[in-house]
Amino acid sequence: MSGLRILVPVKRVIDYAVKPRVNRTQTGIDTSVKHSMNPFDELSIEEAVRLRERKLPVESITALSAGPAKAQDILRTAMAMGADKGIHVQVEEQNALEPLGVAKLLKKVAEGEKSNLVILGKQAIDDDAGQTGQMLAGLLGWSQATQASKVQIENDTVTVTREVDGGVETLKAKLPMVITTDLRLNEPRYASLPNIMKAKKKPLEKKTLKDYDLDLPTKLKTIKVTEPPPRKGGVKVEDVDGMIGKLKELGAL
Amino acid sequence: MASTNPVLRQQVKRIYKELLHMGRDYPEGYDYFRTRLHRAFASQQHLTDPDEIKKRIGRAEFVKKEIEAMYFLKKYRSLRHRYDPY
């Protein structure tokens, strides 16, 4: 069996603990807040590193991020967690890529890096699209296993347990393959200070979309962004009759 | 301090810096964490016995592990509540 060449795309998103606020012009959300790596992508990095720690023939783990210059910080975190190198594709914030664009880019990178396993987070916690992995598998013509909660690799056969409604499903497929991670796949390690320092010495390639012969215009136009209406408070009823009266009033009885 | 053991001193500084770095993600904020961390280390500065110092360094390592576990749990829980509605 040839070695595993794993590609792990990561996204820089607003930190999970920060409550997003709509900006005053209602064109988007306030992005001047703390950012960090998409938690589902942490799971995919961790899984790649654990495959290596399980003594599987992992040849390389490449982290990739497309975004503004600050996406490099996220790549450093990925490398501190155990990725061997990073690729940063410079994309300005106002022309941020859509899932199909990301999938097209990942296809090019996966071909260029000769990857045979792509592990993605199942979705990003900012736009919650959950499409990239599936579209990438379609574009590459590879097998896909989404929402993985367990990954086992033997020679070039991959067995993935995935979480579905009402239970688990076990899939078996040959490499090359696309896997997307679910929350219960593993427990991502903390990128400690010494490891972050060491990660600064790891190679980071800087690319643009032009290097991959790609032109990915934005197809969706954001018209308006608003906050959901605030929840209306309930009322307290005096007694059973009051409750029945209220329910009748609402047409529930 | 003439009796300072340079090896131990370096170890203490290293764990202090590592903890300080973790404090950036602390839910109550960095300042909250830093003042408390500083106080915890300063309260032990009278120690001179190397064995005693080693014991406290071990304790700092333990606290580091606990904070890591807490961060993980907090993240896992908030994501679970967000995506698994039950």
TrEMBL record, chain A:
Gene3D superfamilies: HUPs (3.40.50.620). One of its GO terms (molecular function) is electron transfer activity. Residues 25-216 form the Electron transfer flavoprotein alpha/beta-subunit N-terminal domain. Its cofactor is AMP; FAD. It is found in: Mitochondrion matrix. Pfam families: ETF. Binds 1 AMP per subunit. Binds 1 FAD per dimer. The keyword Mitochondrion applies. Keywords: Electron transport, Mitochondrion, Transport. One of its GO terms (biological process) is fatty acid beta-oxidation using acyl-CoA dehydrogenase. CDD domains: ETF_beta. One of its GO terms (cellular component) is mitochondrial matrix. The electron transfer flavoprotein serves as a specific electron acceptor for several dehydrogenases, including five acyl-CoA dehydrogenases, glutaryl-CoA and sarcosine dehydrogenase. It transfers the electrons to the main mitochondrial respiratory chain via ETF-ubiquinone oxidoreductase (ETF dehydrogenase). PANTHER family: ELECTRON TRANSFER FLAVOPROTEIN BETA-SUBUNIT (PTHR21294), ELECTRON TRANSFER FLAVOPROTEIN SUBUNIT BETA (PTHR21294:SF8). Heterodimer of an alpha and a beta subunit. Belongs to the ETF beta-subunit/FixA family. This is Probable electron transfer flavoprotein subunit beta. It comes from Lojkania enalia.
UniProtKB/TrEMBL annotation, chain B:
GO terms for cellular component: mitochondrion. It comes from the Eukaryota. Signal peptide: none annotated. GO terms for biological process: negative regulation of oxidative phosphorylation; respiratory electron transport chain. Pfam families: Complex1_LYR_2. InterPro entries: Complex1_LYR_ETFRF1_LYRM5, ETFRF1. Belongs to the complex I LYR family. This is LYR motif-containing protein 5A. It comes from Lojkania enalia.
